[in-house]
Specification:
Length: 384
């Protein structure tokens, strides 16, 4: 297929991948102290449930994004009874090896260094060593509410643009302040509320408009890529559609704010804005979340993530690490075969895959796959 040819061409054009060489964990989740080495190609991480396969992927994600993929705070990541954790990784990129170190201690500021140079702001690290993660609960992006889809879109854009992340942080800070003002007014009305709202709105509008433009631009590229990946994963049997939905398609944000101010004061919160944006996913003209099977929903999710991977390659000239956590569950053998035919391509760079069943992996990998690196975890963990 055309998409497979293009993936290979991107790989040639952009040179070596960005890949994780090794990671060491101290008091991180169920690892007291452990170290693992990876190959630049396909890495298969196998072992029973509870052995730490997902935690190993999360350590790599943390080194890339300065936070866990699964937890909003650091506290659940600290091994029980300990006061902090340390992650250290060697990451190959731009023909050089980089040393990444993160130290988290209770009650102190997180430390994050690359080649012994600390970051003044953690946001400056986002996107430097990109990753794309796929986990079982990600299907909530298909079946859940709009917040899950915005979160994913924000994560993608934050890896592509530091300016987007700055606009996003500023937007949500003003949103929080504006909502606090509206709640106070409901409890204790004041004649100054309109002047204060005018001030907030004047600061708010440029950030909303910038975010809207970024999302429009990325969705224009995301939609055709996702469609092509899904065609491959479904064996060209199903038709999908994606639609970016935003109130700002209808009229400018400033006009929305003027029209909705009375309602905002009545309900005590901001009723319009890009925090209401959504992505709609359709399969053969019907919502996937309602009419799609488990396999179709998972294929849709995989197509979105693969499109995310390719967009990072195109815009940053870096091939991100692709991490797939227990993604073969609820996929029929045909879809598994089609999926592995994609990730075996050289254009995907380094891939980390976890599974409880090594026989399922070997059944779909060609006998000549000598470049595959196997990592076997046992339970209870040795050294944990």
């Amino acid at each position: 297929m055309e998409i497979l040819r293009r993936l290979y061409l991107y790989r040639i054009m952009h040179g070596p991948s960005s890949y994780i060489v090794a990671v060491e964990m101290v008091q991180f989740k169920n690892f007291t102290q452990a170290a693992f080495a990876f190959s630049p190609g396909i890495n298969l991480i196998v072992g029973p449930n509870g052995a730490g396969k997902t935690n190993l992927l999360d350590a790599v994600h943390y080194l890339s994004m300065t936070k866990s993929y699964f937890s909003a705070t650091d506290q659940p990541l600290i091994q029980y009874g300990k006061e902090g954790f340390r992650l250290e990784g060697k990451w190959y990129q731009h023909e050089a090896e980089h040393q990444l170190v993160c130290v988290v201690r209770e009650g102190t500021k997180k430390e994050f260094r690359v080649n012994d140079i600390p970051y003044p702001r953690l946001a400056a690290h986002i996107g430097r060593f990109p990753v794309v993660m796929i986990a079982p609960d990600d299907v909530q992006m298909i079946t859940g509410g709009s917040e899950e889809r915005r979160k994913w879109l924000d994560m993608l854009l934050s890896q592509l643009s530091g300016d987007y992340l700055l606009h996003l942080v500023a937007y949500h800070k003003i949103l929080s302040q504006r909502n606090q003002l509206l709640r106070r007014w409901v409890e204790q009305p004041s004649s100054h509320v309109h002047d204060l709202l005018d001030t907030y709105d004047k600061q708010w509008i440029p950030h909303a408009e910038a975010i809207f433009q970024y999302r429009q631009q990325i969705c224009a590229q995301l939609i055709p890529l996702t469609t092509q990946f899904y065609i491959h994963l479904s064996g060209n049997k199903e038709h999908i559609q994606l639609q970016y939905q935003s109130q700002l398609h209808e009229k400018p944000f400033a006009e929305w704010l003027r029209e909705q101010r009375k309602l905002d004061l009545q309900i005590g919160r901001s009723s319009v804005g890009i925090h209401k944006d959504d992505l709609q996913f359709l399969l053969n003209g019907y919502p996937v979340k309602i009419h799609g099977s488990q396999g179709q929903r998972k294929s849709f999710l995989l197509a979105l993530k693969f499109a995310q991977h390719q967009l990072i390659v195109k815009q940053k000239g870096i091939i991100p690490v692709l991490m797939l956590d227990d993604i073969f569950d609820r996929l029929d053998p045909k879809r598994i075969q089609l999926l592995l035919s994609l990730i075996r391509l050289e254009g995907f760079g380094q891939v980390l895959i976890t599974d409880t069943d090594p026989e399922r992996l070997t059944a779909h990998l060609p006998p000549s796959s000598t470049s595959v690196n196997w990592i076997q975890l046992t339970y209870p963990l040795q050294g944990a």
